[in-house]
Specification:
The chain is an alpha/beta fold and 310 residues long. The chain is built from 8 helices and 9 strands. It is globular, with a radius of gyration of 18 Å.
Length: 310
């Protein structure tokens, strides 16, 4: 099984110095940076539109994969949001990429050997809602220091463990305006009652607009169904869940997280329009949203995702 403390963001240098030292990519003005989460030094990647800004910002939360920064994932997210006028900041939480600290999946594997899946599931939730969430907010705090970021127009998004992180960030608030959560807990829902209960609790505490989406053949469609029903019971009208129809998604992109970066185009337009509407960039009422009842089936055997992609 591959499964996934108080942090304060402190820049290790100015953004321009970081760019000069660590490289910059033309097009999306890609810049690799370092920031602090408590005593740990974490890394991340920032993308920005041309011009001085300030721009609204999307914080992208990766999943449990060890090295998300080595894949196309971050660049693919930037391809969606930077042309739409957003800064994208993709922080790598502790143990991921070259960020300091213990890798969450290693900690969960060790716990499983001692306490079985029950202990691993309990630890997973504890880490996600404490040190992992603190790392995310350290990244958010760092992003707010960037001169081209509008700190009053910040949103979060992510898939799998990143989808969980986006929901937990929405629960904490911290000035965030909206959250776009993809496939949250789909790979752990069937066996981890602790994450199920934790996300139900989060639904009741979230006070900002949320869009939760899943591909039609995700590992489990229960997150959209259960959390959507909970939102309706709690009269959380701004918490929207949806499972995409198989007719609208290419077959090789219907599994967990839409098959990865190659499938991000499936939700790109919806995410941009959702954020534009929430932030007042698009005219009010231009995005018609409602709860969409997901299929009453849980599809196991996610062939397109590795066990590390929670």
């Amino acid at each position: 099984m591959r499964i996934v403390s108080t942090a304060v963001a402190l820049a290790t240098g100015t953004f321009l110095v970081a760019a000069l030292l660590m490289g910059q990519q033309r097009g999306h003005n890609k810049q690799s940076v370092k920031f602090k989460s408590g005593q740990l030094t974490l890394v991340g990647v920032v993308y920005k539109p041309d011009g001085p800004g300030p721009f609204p910002a999307v914080i992208w939360n990766h999943g449990s994969e060890k090295t998300p920064g080595r894949s196309r994932q971050f660049d693919a997210v930037a391809d969606i949001f930077v042309p739409a006028g957003y800064v994208v900041f993709a922080p790598s939480r502790r143990g991921h990429d070259s960020s300091e600290g213990a890798y969450i999946s290693d900690l969960m594997d060790a716990e499983e050997k001692k306490g079985g899946p029950e202990g691993a599931g309990r630890l997973m939730v504890r880490l996600l809602e404490t040190e992992q969430l603190n790392d995310q907010f350290a990244g958010i705090a760092y992003a707010k220091t960037l001169p081209f970021v509008d700190a009053n127009r910040m949103v979060v998004a992510g898939c799998s463990f990143g989808g969980i992180q986006s929901l937990l960030a929405a629960e904490r608030g911290g000035g965030l305006k909206a959250a776009f959560s993809i496939s949250p807990a789909a790979l752990t829902w069937s066996w981890n009652s602790h994450i199920r209960n934790r996300l139900v609790t989060a639904v009741h505490e979230i006070a900002i607009p949320v869009r939760l989406i899943q591909p039609p053949k995700d590992a489990s469609l229960e997150p959209a169904r259960v959390l959507g029903e909970e939102a309706r019971r709690a009269r959380k009208d701004a918490f929207i869940t949806q499972v995409y129809s198989p007719d609208t998604v290419p077959k090789d992109e219907q599994t967990h997280c839409f098959g990865g970066a190659k499938g991000f185009h499936n939700w790109a337009g919806e995410a941009v329009e959702f954020f534009e509407t929430v932030l007042g960039i698009a005219p009010p009422g231009s995005l018609s949203v409602k709860h969409v009842a997901p299929q009453e089936v849980s599809v196991n055997g996610c062939s397109a995702c590795s066990n590390a992609d929670y």
